[in-house]
Amino acid sequence: MRVYVPLTLSGLAAAHRAGEVGPGPLTAYAVTPGLREWYVSDDIEELEYAALNRAASASLRLIAGDPGAVRRRVVVAVDVPDGQAVADPDHSLDPSSLGEVRIASTVPLVKAAAVHVDAEDAEKDVAAAAAVLGAADLGDDDAQFTVDGAEDHELLWFGVQEIPNLIG
To answer: Could you give the residue ranges of the DSSP H alpha helices within the chain?
Structure first.
């Protein structure tokens, strides 16, 4: 199963040093039954893109909680055995947890298929979004517009072998 683990650039650097993403339990995003029902698509690529975007939103939350983090969202795409990623059935249709899964233990970085990271030109919009995320959560339309502006940036695809250049 392909899962998308939200990180920050410093979290990616720590994972690279340790050779694993963790410690567990990890929150990740995947194509779950709830995500399929919400997205109403049978196209696996579209569903995986939706899961990736959910992870990018979670990365933004990590950035908002860490004033020292570089303002670029990071998502690591990792392949794990099907039973290792578990969705909470009580929250499967909760809009805030669509596609969310838990992984009980660390995940070896060698299982990563790719890394998705914002381009440098997204930093200003991601910083602005991180600053108003709480207000957006409380229903502030202007703040939500700012958050949406950051989400308009497409994450770039990088091979795992490129991690040293990303964190360097």
So the answer is: 9-18, 33-39, 44-64, 123-137, 141-151, 163-167
**Euclidean distance between CA atoms 79 and 112, whole angstroms:** 6
pLDDT tens digits, one per residue of 6-22? 999 999 999 999 999 98
CA dist list (Å): 18 to 70, 79, 80, 128: 20, 18, 18, 31
The CA-atom distances, in angstroms, between 12 and each of 25, 42, 45, 139, 160 are 16, 31, 24, 31, 11
**pLDDT (mean) for 109-125:** 96
- C-alpha span between 124 and 146 (Å, rounded): 11
Q: Return all residues near 81 (Cβ < 8 A) that are at least 6 apart.
A: 1
Tokens read off for 95: 């809009």
